[in-house]
Design brief:
Length: about 180
């Protein structure tokens, strides 16, 4: 078992990301580690902290992020978007799911400074969402204008969510996965 805190030697010096218009469209392949693909976009290995997270729901409020992370002042959130995703409703909450190529979700982004901040955000989001890698495109004119970052995606069956059916997969995950199915 590999130590999760040490970098994977295969990815120690990744090449710079290609411009978004040159990224080849690929379907996820089960033979690749999940961090290398996301929907139809190959993704580089996650960067070390600090790393930008894209927010699309309640976390687009600087006051909410400040409260969750127990920050002394309101954090700087950058207006941003991600492409290839869609928003569906999970009860009263927005849930990010894979969308069509070119489909855009707007929100904001925050530079997460440590594993501790990332864990606080994950605790807030619950296991109904999982962290995945994504391209974040900033809309505020500041630099950088795009980065490989992270986003919380719906962890259950997106089709069940769209059809407003009971999501057995997510329910099993929330119950600890010890249900025998």
């Amino acid at each position: 078992m590999q130590d999760k805190t040490s970098p994977d030697p295969v990815f120690s010096n990744p090449p710079p990301p290609p411009p978004p218009s040159l990224v080849p469209i690929k379907q996820p392949q089960s033979t690749l580690p999940h961090s290398l693909t996301q929907h139809n976009k190959p993704i580089l290995p996650p960067p070390a902290y600090p790393v930008y997270y894209f927010f699309y729901g309640t976390l687009t409020s600087a006051i909410q992020v400040q409260r969750i992370l127990d920050l002394p002042e309101e954090p700087h959130l950058r207006e941003a978007k991600v492409s290839g995703y869609a928003i569906a409703k999970w009860g009263d909450y927005p849930a990010l799911i894979n969308g069509e190529q070119g489909q855009v979700v707007t929100g904001s982004s925050y530079l997460v400074k440590s594993e501790e901040e990332a864990q606080k955000l994950a605790h807030y989001e619950t296991n109904a969402y999982e962290v995945t890698d994504c391209w974040i495109f900033f809309k505020d004119g500041e630099e950088p204008d795009k980065v490989v970052g992270k986003v919380f995606m719906y962890a259950g069956d997106a089709q069940a969510l769209l059809e407003q059916r009971f999501d057995r997969k997510l329910w099993g995950k929330q119950m600890g996965g010890n249900l025998g199915f």
